[in-house]
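Researcher: Next entry: Melanocyte-stimulating hormone receptor (Xenopus tropicalis).
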Amino acid sequence: MLHSTVNSTNATINVGTELKPTNTSDTVMDVPEELFLFLCVFSLLENILVVIAIFRNHNLHSPMYYFICCLAASDMLVSSSNLGETLIIFMLKQGIIKSEPLLVKKMDYIFDTMICCSLVTSLSFLGAIAIDRYITIFYALRYHSIMTLRRVVIAIGVIWSVSLVCAAIFIVYHESRAVILCLIVFFLFMLALMVALYIHMFALARQHARSISALQKGKSRRITPHQARANMKGAITLTLLLGVFFLCWGPLFLHLTLFVSCPGHHICNSYFYYFNIYLLLVICNSVIDPLIYAFRSQELRKTLKEIVWCSW
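Model: Predicted structure:
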């Protein structure tokens, strides 16, 4: 936490004001600020390129890519907040700027709000992409009437608004463990929802394969082989995004769970020691996501190449 550095030489970056037990605040593994800075800058540039590519290429103007664009913006929040906080902590330690507790505390709240907002929006937009893929696969003929531009814009607006409100509430009531518990429950709920959607989607993967086989034999079906492959490709892309998200954010949520359940236990305290590693994993999620977008989408990869080459 930024505010904790005013009274401590330990430059720990924290998520939320009270996520780390006070009896372990001085026994957290140090991670070089340079590593945080490098990952944050790299992630920020990657996600900016993704957002620009989606806006420039009209072939990417579809609900799924609108949600991916928002997911990239959410990753930018993580990178920006950690970048800003790391720079300020570095300047405080070097004496470049003077330590004014009130100002530092306000900036700390701003950075923590950005991270919390990013967490809620990331989960929400991953859920939105899962629902989009679900509709694409199971309601292919009605997809464009269901996923209209108006509904997508409303969904995006609602997600960002609710996420900002939730983040503000989380920061204002950071001393209440009930708030942290709500965050954990939301994480588990979104996990359960997306797993349920995935089980249903991939349960019919064989049926789609049979549909392709039937079409090749001349039988008429409601879905073309190209549509089936494209739909399942989108589902696989989302699988990768979800897997990376839960691998990168999971340790931090386990940290929160242990903080609520056993903050003073020696086993929990030993887990708290690696808190900065969990934050690095969160930033790594923002670094990996754009690579997944580019790897899975030939159209996006082509646009990114054009942007990079034109910039040179």
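Model: Note for the record: The chain has eleven helices and no strands.
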